[in-house]
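Might you be able to consider the sequence and fold that I enclose below?
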Amino acid sequence: MAGVKSLVKDTAIYGMSSIIGRFLNWCLVPLYVYIFPTEEYGIVSYLYSFTAVALVVLNYGMETGFFRFANKSEDPDKVYTTSLLSVGFTSLLFMILATIFIAPLSEVLQLPMHKDYVWMLAIVVAIDAFSNLPFAYLRYKNRAIRFAAIKMLNVGLNIGLNLFFILACPWIDDNYPYLIGWFYQAPGGADFGIGWIFVANFISSVVILLMLLPELCGLKYRFDGALLRRMLRYSWPLLVLGVAGIMSQNMGQMIIPYLFEDQQAAHSMVGIYGANIKIAIVMVMFTQAFRYAYEPFIFASNKGEDKSQSYCDAMKFFVIFGLLIFLGVMYFLPLLKHFVSEPYWEGLQVVPIMMMADLFFGIFFNLSLWYKLTDRTQWGMYFSLFGFVLMFGLNVWLVPMIGVPNGYIGSAWAAFISYFSMMLLSYFIGRRYYPLPYDLKRMGLYLALAVINFFLGEYVLNFSSMMWLTYILRVVLLLDYIVVVALLENVPFITPLVKRLISKGG
């Protein structure tokens, strides 16, 4: 249980930076959707889906590989510097190639008129891919506070620059153009539009790389080719896993423009879909925070200790909190929807689908420990390829079948079905190679309770003419879920309090 407590503490620290950071970045979505039309925001969502894939490619599994080999090595700094030199070389090569071939690259992305957008994001991806290793080193050293501080600085800087370029600069340009004309007018001023989003990202990525210099300087750089080959053998299946996984996560935004001839309508659908899945991103943030703490936890030396029960407890509490997040978001969706403008509301129906899809993906990640600990990472590759092929096929079938303007609903269901299938496959195959005594009955009970409470709050106790009463009843249902979990898990402080109240009531 001590291991789980440590995991919870680290998840809380990483989670604060991840959840607060993503929440603050999420708050930029209203800025974008209230200023830019759906088709323009669709370009932003579309391009960032490709940059997510490129980031995974340029990391090629070295982040997880670093944790695996650093914990096994007597010289973890050599593992770190070997990883740094490798990723640094490939990131620099990517920058050079993207600059040389920017025109054909923009053509392939169907954005020949926006080569500047594509180039800026290519440089950002290369910088971020390299920066991921110093961040991993901070996690390895258990320097969660510094990790969180730099992550939060990145978010704050990005938000500040977005507000400056998109809101402040047009006003300054109208009233005091001589103050900003030297940099603002060259790309087109206010007409540069969504391009300023990418400029803000570019600047913040460079600054964060500079902040990570203490993790890059003062080291004795050593490169071990034999070590790198072993790391690559371990990590290349994770690369395939990561690419297939991230392409699956972004499949809707990436594929919709290729399924319709009307690019404006396609980008509009991408914009609506991309804005609404941002509401469901709370589940993604929770999974990401858990991942930051979980990978060092499962790879840490246990000195002969059997951590099977800790792994099972981690899974159970992940499901508990994931279901609580689902209920909280869905109960207050009528309020959360105002974070996007009214033209985007037609896409709100994808939120519950994507919330559950993301929960399935989080469970799939939790299950991934069996093939990582047994060095059977090829299974992760197989699962992700299966999920990718299934999701691609479902998108190609469902999205055009539903058609304009709601084709993105097909992308949401494709994600739901694919992640659910991957989760089941990983569980049943994992039972053969690394069986763990997961408490399926207890987790099934919590799932049933969450589903019942969801339907009660959404369809039975939903009074549209008295929303204040609806919210009160939904809060009661949330408390009901929490109290039941606390009683069954014998949570300190909460369980005795509830029992005393019950006894007094009796």
